[in-house]
């Protein structure tokens, strides 16, 4: 039978929709509680919804009983500190799995390329239900930062770079596209990341916000590209790394 996948993501695996007016909101991401949970890069996470409502960010399948990345339980303390972020996450009115704010320290383009990974969003997801995708709502005004997306991990020709100013809203099939943020800094980047089940309400939410499936990628300076190439060559010369899925 297979999963239901949204036509809006079919062409490139992502959609960028209208920006949100972030400047008028309080900076709730500075008030919430973060936990030390590592993903790609130098990060911390703050859960708004977790597997069973605890202050933790582990994959839902790593719990007892295990569950797929749906039916997240709101983390009372953080929801109380971040009502606006919570209401934004709920806006598409679809099943939500993990919902958290990521804090990412500055990195280089080469770091981001090294961090490229795909997510394991649909583990335990019952066949015939909606494919789980992720929304990224950028909170800080990171004018020089981009979300790097690649259909093929080691093929730069498949790369899209989506700018991440405050209010940027992206929906990404992160189990299809390799992804990582390049964030030059100098301050940490904050972004609300929510797992959603594909379905009519999410499609309507996307459609109403003028989705774009292909953005103009900002140029990467030659020195940054050269460093990424140098590190890629070094990785290739060492033992090949098996493909792994990250939980991030
Ligand atoms: Fe990820």
Question: Could you walk me through the main structural features you see in this protein, from its secondary elements to its overall organization?
Answer:
It is built from five helices and twelve strands. The protein is α+β, with helices and mostly antiparallel strands and 248 residues long. A seven-stranded antiparallel sheet has the order 1-9-6-11-4-2-3. The protein is globular, with a radius of gyration of 17 Å. Bound molecules: fe (ii) ion. Fe (ii) ion is lined by residues 117, 119, 174, 179, 246, 248. Fe (ii) ion binds next to loops.
What's a quick, concise take on this entry?
This protein has 248 residues and is an alpha+beta fold. It is built from 5 helices and 12 strands.
